[in-house]
């Protein structure tokens, strides 16, 4: 990659609705995430995390500002920009329950324009890495929540995009599933040099363990953006009154 940041947000904003019913979800947010880093986007429910992540993957159109992915402007060079992103959004188990994990991955590979011969070795690798290989031919509907979450992330990674967006990745997982999932995210960052943006409301768990940097969002505004160590220090010293869920 060149020196361009993986994700560059410039004065990004989103207001839902008009006039009396207008609701500002994100206001004038500026953020730059270098290639290979993990950024935790931390904030309480309703702070605007989901809206921000949806604007980055092109699902919500900003009402102000710009999103650049690897230097490509999402508004004007959309297909180049979105090709670099794999996203797993909160609550969206974007997988087909009647199909097996293996069939889901082949299906998503085809959907994203890969040839089957390209998809197969990638699917095998992902399923082995995720400990799903032994059960790859069972219906996803019969899996635990943690396993379904892994399949969802695997489908996002089938094209091997350099950037991964994860919205509340451990929400609703039991302790053990959350542990293996976090270990896997750490492996993607460390060994596969993925650039990862994840949202969470857990500072002393997901954000602290996985992130190089943490950005805090509150009432639609980014109120801090610091290396994780510094943020934790400041948080402890100043006892910031950040309501974290
Ligand atoms: P959560 O963790 O609950 O998902 P969040 O930090 O992701 O919260 P958002 O979902 O981005 O926050 O919501 C930010 C604000 O925008 C909230 O006040 C919400 O009610 C509002 N909002 C979100 N989506 C819409 C929409 N489609 N139409 C109108 N208002 C919306």
UniProtKB/TrEMBL annotation:
It comes from the Bacteria. Its main location: membrane. The keyword Nucleotide-binding applies. One of its GO terms (cellular component) is plasma membrane. The keyword Glycoprotein does not apply. Keywords: Antibiotic resistance, ATP-binding, Nucleotide-binding, Transport. GO terms for biological process: response to antibiotic. It is a peripheral membrane protein. Residues 7-244 form the ABC transporter domain. It is found in: Cell membrane. One of its GO terms (molecular function) is ATP hydrolysis activity. Belongs to the ABC transporter superfamily. This is ABC transporter. It comes from Intrasporangium chromatireducens Q5-1. The chain holds residues 10 to 254 of 335 of the full protein.
């Amino acid at each position: 990659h060149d020196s361009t940041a993986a994700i560059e947000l410039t004065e990004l904003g989103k207001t839902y609705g008009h006039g009396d019913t207008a609701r500002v979800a994100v206001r004038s947010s500026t953020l730059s995430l270098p290639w290979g880093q993990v950024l935790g986007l931390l904030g309480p429910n309703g702070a605007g995390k989901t809206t921000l992540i949806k604007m980055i993957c092109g699902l919500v159109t900003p009402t102000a500002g710009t999103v650049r992915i690897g230097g490509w402007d999402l508004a004007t060079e959309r297909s180049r920009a979105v090709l670099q992103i794999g996203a797993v959004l909160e609550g969206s188990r974007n997988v087909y329950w009647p199909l097996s994990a293996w069939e889901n991955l082949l299906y998503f590979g085809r959907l994203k324009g890969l040839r089957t011969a390209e998809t197969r070795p990638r699917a095998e690798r992902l399923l082995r890495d995720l400990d799903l290989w032994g059960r790859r031919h069972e219906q996803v509907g019969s899996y635990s929540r943690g396993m379904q979450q892994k399949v969802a992330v695997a489908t996002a990674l089938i094209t091997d995009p350099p950037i991964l967006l994860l919205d509340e990745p451990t929400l609703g997982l039991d302790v053990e599933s959350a542990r293996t999932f976090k270990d896997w995210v750490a492996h993607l960052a460390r060994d596969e040099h993925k650039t990862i943006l994840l949202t969470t409301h857990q500072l002393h768990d997901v954000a602290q363990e996985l992130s190089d940097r943490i950005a805090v969002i509150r009432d639609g505004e980014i109120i801090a953006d610091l290396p994780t160590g510094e943020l934790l220090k400041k948080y402890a010293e100043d006892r910031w009154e950040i309501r974290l869920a």
